[in-house]
Amino acid sequence: MAILTLENLSFSYPDRDEKALENICLTIGRGEFVVLCGESGCGKSTLLRLLKKQLRPKGTKSGGIFYKGVEIDDLDDRTAVTDIGFVMQNPDNQIVTDKVWHELAFGAESIGLSQNEIRSQVSQTALFFGIEDLLYCDCDKLSGGQKQMINLASVMAMNPDVLLLDEPLSQLDPIASTQFISLLVRINKELGTTVIVAEHQLGGLLSVAKRAVMLDNGKVCHDGDASSLTE
Ligand code: ADP
Ligand code: MG
């Protein structure tokens, strides 16, 4: 069953003649692991941000984007915040608090969960990620790889159904990258979360993603087996 459906989606930024996205038609099933690829400037970030109501860029959109059959613009704010998680390229732009545990609690706090619920979300998430011993660390003392993992954990603490990631590996060294990819695989397999990850450098992603969608100049130029693309 489809979790996200894009119907003839086109988008242009203000004051730009050419479209950043043109007639995109895509159906993403529940539990899929999709890599969104293509050269820099092809429209990956624009597409991902249109899927997250709070990050939607300003401009002119035509066509439809449906999450579980509901147009994204019509989703209530809480669903749009919790159900669709977004991990950005640079963890320093997304980490907002001082301590790791606070970072994990922040989302749950912002939607007004009780202290007990927040505590339970934080401990479950810390257990899943194996980061109990980092909980009381200062975020600014963490390595780049640890920061991106905390970033991912804080998004996962909201239990999203869909996880969107915009070039999450670009600032990571090869070891941190491999660890991060294996977390994505576990999240997808064990929690059933639908994962859509935009990457310019495909690294180890092609071997774990079943499906690759490639954009070229705002249009889909490949949609199918990830293994048929070469790095
Ligand atoms: P990618 O993430 O694949 O590098 P983007 O979605 O960032 O691609 O960009 C797609 C196109 O939209 C590019 O031509 C880019 O220059 C343009 N673009 C991106 N952001 C903006 C913006 N805020 N204003 C105007 N044009 C933009
Ligand atoms: Mg981008």
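^ magnesium ion complex. The chain has a mean pLDDT of 94. The longest helix spans residues 174-191.
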